[in-house]
Amino acid sequence: MDVLMLSRLQFAAASMFHFLFVPLTLGLSVLTAIYETKYVTTGDEDYKRAAKFWGKLFLINFALGVVTGITLEFQFGTNWSSYSKYVGDVFGSLLAIEATLAFYLESTFIGVWVFTWNKVKPKTHALFIWLVAIASNVSALWILIANGWMQHPVGYVLRNGRAELADFIAVITNKFAIYEFLHTVSGAYILSGFFVMGVSAWHILRNNELEFFKKSFRIAATFALVFALFEIFNGHLHGAEVAETQPTKLAAMESHWETKKSAPMYLFLIPDEENERNSLELFPIPGMLSMLAYHSPSAEVKGLKDFPKDERPPVGLTFFGFRIMVGLGFLFGLLTILAWLKRNAPETAPALLKVLILAIPLPYLAIEAGWVVAEVGRQPWIVYGLMKTKDAVSVLASSQVLISLIAFVAFYSFLGIIDFYLLAKYARKGPEKAN
Prior knowledge:
By secondary structure, this protein is mainly α. The chain contains 14 helices and 8 strands.
């Protein structure tokens, strides 16, 4: 393989490993803050124990997430130096703000929160974890604004052979980036809600700390339900934005080859990218693709054949990634409704509890599939319509990238095993005993 493909594989591996940790960090920080706030407002010691228990799992996940995230930014200098030279004036400023503002705030108050239990007033201590949660999510906001700019570049001018920042407000209010942030963070909250429900379900089935885990389950079920339903609504809005700004991605998501009005959506089809067609199309819903993309059943949807071959994304990965994400999204909506209906007496629904334990990995799969759609569907552009991925790579020997790719995969696999081992160990152990 050439340097371009190896560099793409390396960045994809690093990104997907990193995003095994990020969503749980984002959601558990908020849930931990909610549990501690419940303790402050009710005086119920179970909620204080909940904040400590779920907070410990948050800290394990945060530590591993930091390690995997740092290397991603280094790759913009090592593997993608041409990209950094061309758009660094815009992209670099956003990452700098994330690091100096959000990440340092988050890291500082994590330490303060850990070491000040019973040393400050409960309200003050709860404020610390809220600051951690806010900083974690603000960090995600700046990173996703940067990614949103790559998906839909705005607020720049081409000058001196590079893209330079011209309108900072346009960049940070980029509608694509806002939808992407809401979509990504909602997915993280769903994942965290399912993690807490699944772990709670495991203990409830064994009658371990029943009242404690029922309280954890109740809040997590409500939390996950709100964001599972919001994700479906926001996903539709985000899809319409993709149709407007990235028509090639939309066409690949639906394996839509021919430009037509009243474009149907097929409940089942098999893409045939080599022959530029679908080998099987079943159960068409007339006008549905036009309706979902442009809010009109008679709207014209441009097909892949109307775009140059060298500007089309890989269809198979984008198509199946999209269906995995959407299918699981609707499943999460159903499961969270059932969990919410049983939130006050989950022990009376053992079958549901068993399903929720098995469902813990599914939000991870949905989120990874979503990033496949976002990033593979953007190809061949690294900055959509502005810079192609092949023009962004550094001048390196293939052997250099291959060695680092193998090292990344081996090291990250080791870190992943440690993370999931520790999460499983302390999740099974349960909370500290009540005084």
